[in-house]
Description:
heterodimer, A: 227 residues, mainly alpha, Four Helix Bundle (Hemerythrin (Met), subunit A), disordered N terminus, B: 95 residues, 73% helix, flat
Amino acid sequence: MSHSTEAGTVPHPALQVPYRDLDQQRETATLGMFVFLLTELMMFGGLFCAYLVYRTLYFPSFQEGSKHMDLAIGAVNTAVLICSSLTMALGVQAAQKGRSKAIVSWMAVTLLFGCTFLVLKGVEYYQHWRAHEVPGLGFDLASSTAGVDIARVQLFFVLYFIMTGLHALHMLIGIGLVTWITICAGKGRYTEGYHNPVENVGLYWHFVDLVWIYLFPLLYLISRTRT
Amino acid sequence: MAEHTVPKKIYAAIWATLLAMTLITTLVAFVDLGRFNTVVALAIATFKASLVVLFFMGAKYTPRLTRVVIICGIFFLGLLLAFSMVDYLTRLWPA
């Protein structure tokens, strides 16, 4: 299908200067979104790097820290985000076919999964709070193994809260963006030719899922069995 | 040129694979593989991430320029992690 604007045809109202046609405009928007997501990747990358370095240096303390994670909630949340990525992908596909009602339905389901994730994360944070596992606020490990440096376990929790907290902030922003897309799709703003915002919010949502795909094994899984 | 739309069946297959991989990685965490627990967990995470980037984010169907940009970003992240680790891992080596 061509959206080219040869003489005599009316250009699509969404087509902006300097783009030749809507496909070129969309490809440029996608490229720009990926460049933005790569800056996000480098921001999270710095935190992952800090985690990797300190995990290597203070291995026994980080292993102790991992034992205080709620594996069940972590695993369920991973599944929840994977489901939300599926519904988001289906929503973007509905946008590519210009089906506004389908966009609204898929985005609503995505929102539901996103909120489920945040509620479970909140429950987890509350459990950490109750167990005195929040660094700086009466941090005290009741059931820690003898010979483990409490200050270094606290460092594990500092990184845990910063990494999952930054991820949760991204989830909140994502929920805001998906709500906006749902409202605009309800007004019939997106068509087969123009749906860049839906695609780019989709890319953002999948990126946030990607970060969690790495956070889950690094924080919850890899230190469980080694003694 | 119309946009490439992925069949719903492929999306469903990717979703099922991602969920299965999550289950496997969680179960493997309870088996003591020594150093290989980390290797297996990160290999599975990378496999899952590749599926998300290629299919859900549609990197497989984007123009070559976009793919080059994505690969560059991953390369620089690798550079950050690799060079930092080379530094820290060799600090305790005897001179």
